[in-house]
Write a structure and sequence with these properties.
By secondary structure, the protein is of the alpha+beta class. It has four helices and seven strands. About 45% of the residues lie in helices and about 25% in strands. The termini are far apart.
Amino acid sequence: MSTFVVKLLQRTQLSHSQLDVKPFIYARSNWLDNEAEFDFLSTVDNRNYRGSIKYEELRTAATELEQPFETFFEECKGAMTTHMGQQGFDYELCLDNAEEPVFKMYKCMGYETLYLEIALRTVSNCYQLLDAAIEAGQQRPTPAAPVVTESQNQETASLAEYEQYVKDSKQKEEELLKKFLLLINSKKAHIRDLESQLEEERSKKSSNSHKISSDEEEDEAYGAATQAMNVGDEDS
């Protein structure tokens, strides 16, 4: 079993109105006995994706391309574990169909050949890729006389960039959450103010209604017909 974490350049097709902004794909690959597992983080939508491919599928692809399996396998593995990708290969996260994301790797040597196509699923936690990278780094044996190669420097730089990217994303998420909470509290305060005003209006209407009722009763009392007093004639 061998695990790699690399940074790949996302394949893009620019139109005249688009800026030349290069999106990247952080890729973690775990090469097991019978299959290879992959985790991808796209800087296009800040989402994490996971998928796997059986070696039998690679064997079938090698047969269709009329290549020896061992040669084809090593070529695919090398292209997926090289920092910033291997020359002559293009990498693409196809996200047009949100329900069925796909990762594709093309070999572009005079003509374009599809080498890998991996069905993916969205993973909610983007930190799984980082945890796997840290765990893989801790499991590597420390050589007696450590020699830092260029590829190791590139891998270290890739991991550092990824850690910074995750940190920045988490900070943005926290800032958005704080703004959302402030907005919610403001709305709640406004609702309480409106309820208080409504209660005052109801109280005023109730008081005015009571006053009007008392005035009407007094008017009825004063407006009642006066009864004539009959006084008997003394002479009669």
